[in-house]
Amino acid sequence: MGGFQDTFQRKEIKYILNAAQYQEMLRWLQPIARVDSYGETAIQNIYFDTPDFRLVRSSMEKPLYKEKLRLRTYGIPGDGSTAFIEIKKKYLGVVYKRRIGMPYEEALQVLCHGELERLPGMGKAQRRLEQRIQEDGHAGAERKHERSRDGTERPAGDRGPEGQIAEEIAWFFRVHRPLLPAMKIRYDRIAMAGIADPSLRITFDRNLQWSMHLDLRDGAEGEPLLQPQQVLMEVKIQGAMRPDMARALSERGVFPASFSKYGEGFARYYKAAMQSRRTLSWLAEQTWRNAWDTFGCPACEHDGPGETWQRTDRPGNRWQHQTQNTGGLIYA
Predict the structure, then answer these.
(1) Between vectors from CA 205 to CA 200 and to CA 209, what angle results, nearest 5°?
(2) Please, how many CA atoms are within 13 Å of residue 128, restricted to the half-sphere of its CB?
């Protein structure tokens, strides 16, 4: 699927434009950037989180480091359509993104049923992953890195980009458990690239929506995330912004905005739940139920052979963990 990068390292600055500002910025950009070959694209994402939305709640506190996992398609997919499993990390304002492309149905098996062996490059990553688990001794320990010739960070002992990304995804599952499909975010995007500087990317997102109808194959509409006629613009750069672009934005009254699509979607979902006197525990139960009803997801950790998390009706506990190593149950 030419034209899509597998790794990114850049700054992303967001702006919310009204209709007039949107048209003015499009005109201003014409001499320096052009719309990419895909034109306007409908982008759909499933964001994965713990049942109680721990990842997005932590992200909304604006820590120095945050990360997210999502499944993305361009347009409404079929079972065999290319989908991208993406890990997106942000540290001190710099965004790092890794992704692997694979058929949509297979990606669901990886993400919803823990079949990590389906990941391209997972065979290469497995030995390093096992070594890393033994060295660290616990989930979340600081990993070791080596710097490659292109300046990107990659795990020591890595055997290539697919193996690296597969390891990142498997480690994400280990650290943030249990993971379930939590929310769908969709929007229509126009992407532009710099003519003289192709590393400059500008995107305009319209019709931003959030939904709890998770399967991307149904093309279901959701609830709006912005006011009518508003557009989310993102300027994606590897260094400092061009002075003339900064001046053009300022002259049109366009200033950076803190805006997370998934964070805003969760904020609206959480607010509606609280107004109905629901609790975070109720949201966690709905997350599991929705994942089960849509994809047949067990609420599971897939932390190794024979290890699973399952829902339980045991009073005071929502999950039970069983491992072949001990043969017993651990409740949480």
Answers:
(1) 145
(2) 24
